[in-house]
Every structure is written in structure tokens, then in C-alpha cells.
Write a structure and sequence with these properties.
Chain A: One of its GO terms (molecular function) is acetyl-CoA C-acyltransferase activity. The complex is a heterodimer of chains A (about 375) and B (about 130). With about 375 residues, chain A is an alpha/beta fold. Chain A is built from eleven helices and twelve strands. Chain A has two domains: about 130 residues, Peroxisomal Thiolase, Chain A, domain 1, CATH 3.40.47; about 220 residues, Thiolase/Chalcone synthase (Peroxisomal Thiolase, Chain A, domain 1). In chain A, the strands form two sheets. In chain A, strands 3-2-4-7-1-8-12-11-9-10 form a ten-stranded mixed sheet, with helices on both faces. Chain B is about 10% helix and about 40% strand. Classes of the chains: A alpha/beta (about 375), B mainly beta (about 130). Bound molecules: zinc ion (ZN).
Chain lengths: ~375, ~130
């Protein structure tokens, strides 16, 4: 079953972002849901699909639905790390195409920064017992391992990684909602405290609070919206492991299979993509994802991002919000990739608006390169 | 951990106690299984045989940790965590034991040694 143009995004919104010390995860999701539905011109009582994920609870769908007063006919709690929301977008479209629901709400909220969120620890008794004695800090250590491998095989340098962080900051300076907007240089990134070498402090995403919402509707419902819809052209998903020691090849992520599936479904080529939103949990995540999705060949991502190519004014519009590195990163970032892609496709991004904005690719990575879902979107 | 460990897990940890690094091969399809399982990861056969590793391997990737994940390990930091391709065809992750030889990188040769910790004996790497 192809999901090509089977569903449209009708509304997107963030909650308050950054440091939100007076809100719960449910309140943040209520804020985002209200704003996303309002911009779509859809009443809450039309919502018949709910998709959400959060590390704060064992049954987040139940808690969120009860709090918002939603009784979904279709409910999905796929939880595969930060990429969950890209999975949700495909699943929402599939459910809509199958006639299971007509208006699906994808939600996320986290108070990770302010620390009121309880996080459920992984069970030490399962597979983790074969890895945890190594003393690898999760997830940064796993990404550092991948970076070390990329450096050894391809000659990638810390400066190449720093290009990603600096470009993200330059985009963030154009985004009033971004958490970190002060100037950042390659030298700053290189001089930052080491965390898990080769990764240093500024190679790592932010820790913030925040929530987001995405409203997905059927083509029929998309005829009566407050804003022009954004269409799903293609979707693909994949996951390959849970533990980094079980990842088959540290230089080839599930983005390869997910991206292949998304492009096949969308019927567009990589060169047709105007805007890229690529999960940047760490600087290395962007490099490996670019290679795995096929925007460049293995080993060529350093050249791809070099010399400001992915910064504002560069040849590639990538992570135009400032990304998880500079805009926000409340535990999981996937929903914010969708929000920014939709705004770019609608041409709403003001000083950071990309001139040509017909198509966008979103690549969500979860866990330690465990999961990826890739979505290809187009404006109306 | 031992209280709740399954037979498979308990057998592996008993090997560590005896300073043996164990893995499995499948009698049906010859696949190497690590971590150990009750059914083969490749073909689901229950006919898995324990093997003892030569404990020799090569650095596949490594990271130098400055911020340890637990309070117990904080005193050890900074230290290397190594993901190694073992000569026995499985990949294995462990910390590099503190010693005179700390100059490792991708491709370096390693051997597995064992170290007492507060809770239990664990495998570590040592550069060779
Ligand atoms: Zn087998």
C-alpha cells in the first residue's frame, strides 16, 4: 500500500520551549494541541486518531487522551526513540487511508530540562547486561563510537563535525524560538569540554523542555482547512538494533532502508528535495544520516557540510530551525523536524525561509542509530 | 542481577566468574550468537552450543569517556570504551583496563581480561 498523497498535515505547533519550570508534560501537550488544531481550523471533537510517545510514562496514550478528553478510534504509541514521530506520521497516514480515522493528532511533551519528568530506566536484566559493564554513557558514548569509526575509515575530523554545530547555530540565530542564539565558531566547538571523545560538549544536542503537535487529516478533510495542507508523498521506516554493540555496521544506519522506501513511494529523486530536516542528536548523526539516505556517498558527508554549505546562504537548506543542537531538544526531537518542515513548505519562516520550498525530507533517528523513519512532504 | 537471570544469562556470567568469555554457535546454521540466546538469532533453532572465546580481538571503534554514566565509575574516568571485533566472529564491548598501554585506536589488537568490581567480576580489554 502506498501512502502517496493519502494524508495531509493540517496544523503544527510547539508548546512553550526552553526552560518551562511551571508545566507538566500533559500541560505542554495541551498547549501544542490547542494551537495546532486552531491553525488547522479543526475542532478538538473531530480528533479520532491519537499518536504519542513519551519516556515519562508506561501508558502515555492513555494519560494524554484522558487529559485532553479524546476517545480515539485509532491509537498508536510506537516508541522507538526520537524518531517515533516520523513513524507516527506514516502510521497516521496508513490509518487514514484504511479509513480507521480522519483527523489524527500526533503529540509529544517533555520536561526533561526542569527535571519533573520521570524517565523509565532500561531493564538491566535483559540484553543490556551484556553491555552495561563497559561503562558507556548512553546515548553520547554510542554516537562517539560511530564518530571514531567514521574518522578512522574516512579521515573525518572534529572540525568536520563542528561545521554541523556552527551551521545549526547560524540557523537558530534566525529563529526567535531557538534556545541558543549567541554566536558560535568552529574554534568554540573544538575548544568545548570533552564528553565522550571524539565528541565534545557542543557536538551534543541541547537539553530543554517543550512539546509539539501535528494534525494529520484525510484528503477529504483537507479540502476545508484554515491553511493550505502539506502532503505526505512518501514514508519509510526501519530499525536494526537496540544496543550499539549489536549495530551491524556503525557507518550505515537504518536511514538507508527507510530512506530508500520513502523515495520509492514518493517518486522523487534526492536532487528534487528543497529542504532537509535531519535529526541532529549529535553532529555525527547528521553526517551518517546524509550518507545513509544517499545525499552523498559514504565518506563524503564531511565535504557535503564543509565551508558553510548547510548554513544559511549555503547550497543546502538543512535543519533550518537550528535543530536539536541549537533550537530545542526536549528528550526526543522528532516532532520538531515535522513542524519546521511544514512551516518551510508553507513559506512561513521569515528570515530563515528557504527560497525554493516545494519539497522537504524529514529523517528521524531514534536511540543509538536504532531506528529511522523518513518522510517526504510537499506543499499544496 | 543473578537473582533474576535466566539460565542462559547465568551460564554466561558463571563463565565470567571463571574468567572465560563465552559465546554461542548454532548447530543448525553455524551462526555466531552474541549476546547468548535461547533461540538462534538467525534461524531460531534451539540447538545452540557454548564456545569459549580466544579473547583476542581488534578495535572496531573506541571512545574516551570523560563523564562516566554511574557514580561507581566516576573514579575511573577518563577511560576508553572499546567496541571490538573478536577473532571468534562476534562483536564485544568493554572498558579498557587502566594500564601502561593506553595508546589504542581503530585497528589495535586487544585481549580480554577480567576485573573485580564492587558487585561482580567483569570483562575488560587490555591492549596487547
Ligand atoms: Zn541458527
Amino acid at each position: 500500500m502506498s501512502l502517496y498523497r493519502s494524508a495531509a498535515i493540517a496544523g503544527v505547533a510547539e508548546s512553550r520551549l526552553g526552560i518551562v519550570s511551571d508545566a507538566t508534560v500533559l500541560e505542554l501537550q495541551a498547549e501544542a494541541a490547542e494551537e495546532a488544531l486552531a491553525e488547522a481550523g479543526i475542532e478538538k471533537n473531530e480528533v479520532d486518531g491519537l499518536l504519542c510517545s513519551g519516556r515519562w510514562g508506561r501508558t502515555p496514550q492513555l494519560e494524554v487522551a484522558e487529559y485532553l478528553g479524546i476517545n480515539p478510534a485509532y491509537s498508536d504509541g510506537t516508541s522507538v526513540g526520537g524518531a517515533s514521530f516520523e513513524f507516527h506520521l506514516g502510521h497516521a497516514a496508513a490509518a487514514i487511508k484504511a479509513g480507521l480515522c480522519e483527523v489524527a493528532l500526533i503529540l509529544y511533551g517533555s520536561t526533561q530540562r526542569s527535571g519533573k519528568e520521570r524517565s523509565l530506566a532500561a531493564s538491566q536484566n535483559l540484553a543490556l547486561q551484556y553491555e552495561s559493564f563497559a561503562g558507556l554513557p548512553n546515548p553520547v558514548g554510542a554516537y562517539a563510537l560511530a564518530a571514531s569509526r567514521h574518522m578512522a575509515v574516512h579521515g573525518t575530523t572534529r572540525k568536520d563535525l563542528a561545521e554541523v554545530a556552527v551551521a545549526a547555530r547560524k540557523w537558530a540565530q534566525l529563529n526567535p524560538k531557538a534556545f541558543k542564539r549567541d554566536p558560535l565558531t568552529i574554534e568554540d566547538v573544538l575548544a568545548a569540554q570533552p564528553v565522550a571523545e571524539p565528541l565534545h560538549r557542543l557536538d551534543c544536542c541541547l537539553v530543554t523542555d517543550g512539546g509539539g503537535a501535528v494534525v494529520v487529516v484525510s484528503p477529504e478533510r483537507a479540502k476545508r482547512l484554515a491553511k493550505r495542507p502539506v502532503w505526505l508523498l512518501g514514508h519509510g521506516e526501519s530499525h536494526s538494533h537496540m544496543l550499539i554493540s549489536q549495530m551491524p555496521d556503525l557507518l550505515s544506519t537504518p536511514a538507508r532502508d527507510a530512506g530508500e522506501r520513502a523515495f520509492a513511494m514518493a517518486g522523487v529523486a534526492r536532487k528534487d528535495i528543497d529542504v532537509l530536516q535531519i535529526y541532529d542528536s549529535f553532529t555525527i548523526t547528521v553526517l551518517l544520516t546524509l550518507e545513509s539516505v544517499g545525499f552523498c556517498r559514504p565518506g563524503e558527508s564531511a565535504a557535503y557540510v564543509s565551508g558553510g554549505r548547510i548554513a544559511p546562504g549555503g547550497e543546502v537548506a538543512l535543519n533550518t530551525s537550528g535543530g536539536g543542537l541549537s533550537y530545542c531538544h526536549p528528550g526526543m526531537f522528532g516532532i520538531f523536524l515535522i513542524i519546521e518542515a511544514v512551516r518551510q513548505l508553507r513559506g512561513e519562516c521569515g528570515p530563515r525561509q528557504v527560497r525554493k520550498h516545494d519539497t522537504a525530507l524529514i529523517s528521524g533517528t531514534g536511540g543509538v542509530f536504532c531506528s529511522n523513519a523518513t518522510c517526504i512532504l510537499a506543499g499544496d | 542481577m543473578s537473582d533474576e537471570a535466566t539460565q542462559v544469562d547465568a551460564f554466561w556470567w558463571k563463565g565470567v566468574e571463571e574468567e572465560r568469555l563465552l559465546f554461542q554457535t548454532c548447530d543448525a546454521c553455524d551462526a555466531v550468537n552474541f549476546y547468548p540466546r535461547i533461540r538462534c538469532v538467525k534461524c531460531m533453532s534451539p540447538r545452540l552450543s557454548w564456545r569459549e572465546s580466544t579473547k583476542q580481538g581488534t578495535v572496531y571503534a573506541c571512545t574516551f569517556i570523560h563523564r562516566a554514566p554511574t557514580a561507581d565509575l566516576a573514579g575511573e574516568a577518563p577511560y576508553f570504551v572499546v567496541l571490538a571485533d573478536m577473532d571468534d566472529r562476534f562483536r564485544f564491548m568493554a572498558r579498557l583496563r587502566k594500564g601502561p598501554q593506553q595508546d589504542i585506536s581503530v585497528g589495535s589488537r586487544l585481549t580480554v581480561v577480567f576485573e573485580e568490581t564492587k558487585d561482580k567480576k567483569i570483562p575488560c580489554f587490555e591492549a596487547v
